[in-house]
């Protein structure tokens, strides 16, 4: 474990908790893409199947449990409890256009052709594009609430910190996982446009509005 | 070995 990965994980946890709290306290999921949250729940489910078969550390196991619980709680709030506030008309990104190619790629490019490894690879590839429905929704509505922007900043920042973690691990222990690195770079690049707007606008208290 | 196969990152 290194500081980059730890801060990255905490940023990820903060994003997840922030979103869950926002939906719960405002009792509304307006402006939130349910599809992205479904994809994140799928990402955690397929990545953490080793929860019961391999133990890395208490930290690792507890974070996995927290991520899975929060992901499903968020999906539940969006599609069940506050579904009346779910914005169907703007959450129209075709998620199947993400899941199918990613599923195919996971079969073709992976470290080991075993069910657990293919699912882990699927989860890595899917996570890199899972935010697209949310970014698409913001570009359609033309704006995002500031809390949603903070959520996206933390979420985008976590994988950017992981890239630094991978650089650090490569130089300090010669470890690198090309699949995770390439997917992590794609994921972070997707946020670049948003990062620019966030830094130039939200920091100064303006509302974030993506070019429609 | 078993160690490498495990993904130790979240």
TrEMBL record, chain A:
What is its membrane topology? Multi-pass membrane protein
| GO molecular function terms noted in the UniProt entry | ER retention sequence binding
One Gene Ontology BP term is: protein retention in ER lumen
GO CC annotation: cis-Golgi network; endoplasmic reticulum; endoplasmic reticulum membrane
Q: What is its main location?
A: endoplasmic reticulum
> Keyword Thylakoid on this protein?
no
Q: Record's PROSITE patterns?
A: ER_LUMEN_RECEPTOR_1 (PS00951), ER_LUMEN_RECEPTOR_2 (PS00952)
Q: Which UniProt keywords apply?
A: Endoplasmic reticulum, ER-Golgi transport, Membrane, Protein transport, Receptor, Transmembrane, Transmembrane helix, Transport
What's one Pfam family the UniProt record gives for this protein?
ER_lumen_recept
Q: Where in the cell is it found?
A: Endoplasmic reticulum membrane
- Membrane-crossing residue ranges in chain numbering: 65-82, 94-113, 119-138, 150-168, 174-199
Q: Which family does it belong to?
A: Belongs to the ERD2 family.
PANTHER family the UniProt entry points to: ER LUMEN PROTEIN RETAINING RECEPTOR
Name of this protein: ER lumen protein-retaining receptor
